[in-house]
Specification:
CATH architecture: Beta Barrel
Distance between the termini: 72 Å
Structural class: mainly beta
Largest sheet: 14 strands, antiparallel, barrel
Strand content: over 45%
Strand order of the largest sheet: 1-2-3-5-6-7-8-12-13-14-15-17-18-20
Length: 445
């Protein structure tokens, strides 16, 4: 039995060749989260600035501050998944705080219109992504995991079903966790025309998943019971990393702003632990257990991120912005994001925002990147980047000292989910998330 455990761990670790790079890609995922104004603008604020969440894309936005400010944001989200035509459905409601920040603005003694006008610093916390997802998916006549093992000449001492296809399979997957960021930024304002910013950002990662994958076959054993394979697995990643960021906003005309932000790859380390069981029913029931596997810290690099944007100001009544984000990591899919936002000021002190964003890998084919075989794994499922879209609305008030903002965001996508490397993609999956975001704060008059 002890040898069986080692064989099981090694084989299913090898079967997960496509998941290791995918795991780090998952840790690289980002959601448009932050202040209610930033969410309401669809995240298109790299050239606008003046908001603590805009420094995620361009730290030069901090240079537009002229007063000290404290801002706190909370959010409630409803995350739903459904598979059309199967009755599979999952939902989860959760509360979290996506943003806390404090800005200190220091004017210089320079004459207005000459030299640097303000030095601003900010300490902030931002939640960059939340892993709160429930997946439940079914498929029929799909290549079986048992067949994949048999093709490789591995029996593991378990009489698993080895038909090329199974009568039906079912995957239940639950994910939790987060990517949090703690930042220090500094920016300055040069003659109200050029804004330059720099930042140091420390990120914390936690991602855990639990999965149950079952295959059923039409064949029956001597006792009249259907053959089946069952694989249960759990996985936890935890770690930290850091990066540097820099950016510029340039105003060649009073009604035009151009912004560019660059974030270096995040360098860090993560630790993985996993456990699982594999069982099968054919001529008899046998059961094996893969004990907890805790690996050493693994160093990795998160993607290089680039943001370019343009914003148009219509007097004192409106702002319009377009933004393009690019994320590049060697041996992984590049991510492209298009964002658009508008802000209307119907009366002084009040503003209304609307935004739309679309993010995709634009990949032309399903690519599988090999895993380091030293990672002992039982899980075999994996996901590939999918088109993700956002639509949002917000309303805000900025008074003499008080800041109050409220936003609604709808996020939807069609995940590309696979049970294992030979399995066909689960069809007709769709996830959507409804978020309510509320920000409240104080600023110096």
């Amino acid at each position: 039995m002890r040898n069986l455990r080692y064989i099981l761990t090694l084989v299913l670790g090898t079967l997960s060749l496509c998941t290791w790079s995918q795991d780090y890609s998952r840790l690289s995922e980002r959601t448009i989260l932050g202040t209610a104004r930033y969410v309401g603008m669809g995240g298109a604020m790299s050239a606008i600035g003046g908001d603590p969440s805009s420094v995620q894309d361009n730290p030069a936005g901090l240079g537009l501050y002229r007063r000290a400010e404290i801002l706190l944001t909370s959010s409630v989200a409803i995350d739903r998944m459904r598979q059309t035509g199967t009755g599979n459905y999952g939902a989860r409601t959760y509360f979290f705080m996506p943003q806390v920040s404090g800005v200190i603005s220091l004017p210089t003694p320079n004459i207005i219109g000459k030299g640097i006008q303000f030095h601003n610093v900010m300490f902030s916390y931002n939640r960059l992504h939340s892993f709160n997802r429930n997946y439940e998916a079914s498929a029929y006549n799909s290549p079986s995991l048992g067949s994949l093992l048999a093709d490789r000449g591995v029996s593991m001492g378990i009489p698993f079903g080895t038909n090329a296809t199974n009568a039906g399979n079912h995957l239940t997957l639950t994910e939790t966790g987060y990517v949090d960021q703690y930042s220090f930024h500094w920016a300055f304002n040069c003659i109200d025309q050029v804004y330059v910013g720099f930042g140091l950002q420390v990120q914390s990662y936690l991602w855990s998943s639990r999965a149950v994958y079952t295959e059923d076959f039409n064949e029956k054993n001597a006792e009249g019971k259907n053959y089946y394979n069952e694989n249960k697995s759990s996985l936890v990643y935890s770690g930290a990393g850091c990066n540097f960021t820099a950016g510029v906003i340039y105003r060649p005309l009073r009604w035009l702003r151009l912004g560019v932000g660059l974030q270096t790859p995040s360098v860090g380390s993560v630790r993985m632990s996993s456990a699982g069981t594999f069982a099968a029913q054919t001529d008899s029931l046998r059961y094996s257990y893969a004990p907890d596997q805790g690996g050493p810290d693994s160093h990795f690099h998160q993607p290089l991120r680039l943001s370019t944007s343009v914003a148009f100001q219509v007097g004192a009544y409106a702002l319009m912005a377009l933004q393009y984000n690019y994320s590049y990591a060697r041996e992984r899919e590049s991510i492209h994001s298009l964002r658009a936002g508008v802000e209307v000021i119907p009366v002084m002190g009040m503003y209304i925002n609307a935004g739309y964003a679309c993010e995709s890998s634009f990949s032309k084919e399903d690519r599988k990147v090999p895993i380091d075989p030293s990672f002992d794994r039982q899980d075999t499922y994996y996901q590939l980047p999918a088109l993700s879209q956002y639509a949002s609305l917000a309303v805000g008030y900025r008074g003499k000292h008080m800041i109050c903002q409220l936003a609604y965001q709808f996020n939807w996508q069609k995940p590309r989910l696979f049970a294992h490397e030979n399995a066909a993609m689960y069809n007709d999956l769709r996830t959507d998330t409804h978020r309510i975001v509320f920000s409240i704060g104080w600023h110096q008059n």
